[in-house]
Design a protein that fits this description.
This protein has 377 residues and is of the alpha/beta class. It contains 15 helices and eleven strands. Helix 4 (77-90) crosses helix 15 (329-342). Bound molecules: coenzyme A. Coenzyme A (COA) binds next to helix 5 and helix 7.
Length: 377
Amino acid sequence: MTKFGEDWKRGFRDLILEAGKKALEDSNLHGAEIDGLFAGTMAPGPLIGQEHAGALLADWMGLNPIASTRVEAACASGGVALRQGFMAVASGLHDCVVEGGVEKMTDVSGPDVVSALGGAGDQEWELFPGATFPAIYALAARRHMLDYGTTEEQMASVAVKNHLNGSKNKYAQFQSPITIETVMKSKMVASPLKVFDCSPVTDGAAALVLMPLDKARAHTDTPIEIAASAQASDTLALHDRKSLTELNATKVAAKKAYEMAKVGAKDIDIAEVHDCFTIAEVMAIEDLGFFKKGQGGPASEKGQTALNADISVNTSGGLKACGHPVGATGIKQAVEVTWQLRGQANGRQVDGAEIGLTHNVGGSGATAVVHIMKRVN
Ligand SMILES: CC(C)(COP(=O)(O)OP(=O)(O)OC[C@H]1O[C@@H](n2cnc3c(N)ncnc32)[C@H](O)[C@@H]1OP(=O)(O)O)[C@@H](O)C(=O)NCCC(=O)NCCS
């Protein structure tokens, strides 16, 4: 992956090229062996005026004439691209696929970013009347507070933990630890969510290589197995949901993924979950089955999701501190889990991590994709 952040020196194509090159070097792979590219990118049109990103990325990476496909599923674009590549290789149609995710978000003004991201929600019912993404998640936060007694301090503890993890990750956008006070005193964005409850606007890219396990063994001593890939959908608009405090798409995708990998939530050592806002991590650790409904806030506050605690959540710093270049996030989550399972997560390594999970969400939960990854012994 590239260093995430506000990157004034490099453009969209430079970012994916750097990530792609690193992935090929890591896999001891030559371009001629690659026969497919799947790239997650959410909004290159509104953000940099570029569409047809699949073709552009194959061209820029020198991979023509391979089949190259752009995948769009809002902030879950990277996770869904990973799933598309997994299915392509598992089906036998492709032998060696590069998975990329990229977004260049800081070349346009703040309002233009808000409007581009807004396209992931229901334009007619949510965005046009004035709701932003922080505002939509703020509704979920208020309801969670009302139903379960979750507090602003408990949500702030998610940000504190993720910034601490980010401070140990040289690729993270923010690398300074913060305190509960930093969060509580930060500017209000959409009550009760403050700036430090939100993921930032980020430039960045990530990439990895997928191939059948027997072939992968010829390229690396430390292949990582994708043991499950599952995806589910829900209504685009929040008002159509039965509940504001859970993402049903996450619950359905997680259930399918646990069945496919033949593991349960208790078997997961590390998880990269979609913490676009602190309340999103609270809901995710409940919906994924790590904690009972309503217990996500207290568990976060008690440190049960810290490095080497009950379950290590968002060891990279998550979207909150590592950054959220939307289309790249799902791939970055898989890169972080790969490093953890290989024992290469310098400074933030979880002891003996064997099974990891990634959870990537599009919009306010209309798409959710869950992958389970295992160390191959
Ligand atoms: C929270 C948000 C509104 C802040 O934007 P902003 O007020 O325009 O902030 P700026 O870009 O002017 O940055 C001001 C400062 O705050 C910092 N900052 C910005 N966003 C931050 C965040 N989320 N967390 C911590 N610090 C942040 C910047 O680094 C900058 O610091 P500096 O002055 O030391 O350089 C913006 O980051 C945002 O919209 N986040 C949500 C993105 C989103 O919806 N993603 C999709 C999720 S589904």
